[in-house]
Amino acid sequence: MGETPLFHVERLRDLKQSLWIALIFIFLRGCMNRITKKKLEATRKKRGLKVEVDKLQEEIWLVVCGTLFSICSGYLISNSPNFKGCNLFKTSECYAAFTTATGDVPKEIKIYYLTEVGWYLSLMTKSLFGVGRFDSFVMEFHHVITLGLVIWSYTTGFTQRIGVIIFFIFNQSNPLLHLSKLTNYMEWKTSRVYLFLLFASVFFVSRIILLPLIGIRSTFFEMKQGVTEEAWNGAVVYTWCTTNSLLVALW
To answer: What pLDDT is stored for residue 70 in this prediction?
Structure first.
């Protein structure tokens, strides 16, 4: 397998593409705000809703983008040849036959990772550009930890395939959370009850059961088995420690 470097400099350079992706997200968010503002304002007044328009726009944006990320991560896992033998039901092969010494990352996985980095950068800077609300400090901390984990996974080691699976697990409950919040803001009494129950069920299955049983278990126990003892004693042990520390912090 050859010597495994801790950092891949060429991957660090790739991250500048995420800055452009973040700007695209911010631009699209601004366009959505402008398109939906008048209609949402009219709906708010007609229904006598107390919620501000920017809160409704925030939830609509997060529902749409969260759904797209869920679909994209699921499509990669189920259709990409790079995930042959690596899926929710079998993760031991996620570390096999993956280039570590050359620093190559399959193109579709690279695009997905850089898009996720751009997405989280846009979430952290949206209020600075005036296109979104400032999240709570707890949520901002969550964004920082997530961004750190994603960048670490991309620039070090060979954890990108298991990383996409973990993304998929996280992505399942996100759009349902914001759809539930949207129905609550719209005061749809029946829908918000059912959607909250659906969100709670999906969150429990994905975050409480699947994440530790699939994602954390794999990074804790299977990562070491995917490399030589020499590589493990060299750089991979640092990847293991940092990856699992950040992942457990998110859990």
So the answer is: 95
Beta bridge partners of 87: 90
- Residue 192 has phi, psi (to 5 degrees) of -70, -30
Say which DSSP state 93 is in: G
User: Where residue 100 falls among pLDDT bands split at 50, 70, 90?
Assistant: very low
Would the pTM count as exceeding 0.85? yes
Residue 214 has pLDDT above 70, yes or no: yes
Determine the 3-state secondary structure of 9 from DSSP: helix
Residue 36 has a pLDDT of 94
Closest among 248, 163, 186, 226 to 60, alpha carbons compared: 186
Q: Is 36 exposed, middle or buried (0-12, 13-18, 19+ CB in 10 A)?
A: middle
Polymer length of the chain: 251
CB 175 within 8 A of CB 67: yes
- Amino acid letter, 168: F
Question: Which 3 state secondary structure label does DSSP give 106?
Answer: coil
Q: Bigger pLDDT: 29 or 243?
A: 29
Closest C-alpha to 251, from 217, 228, 224 = 217
Residue 21's nearest CA partner among 130, 125, 102 is 125
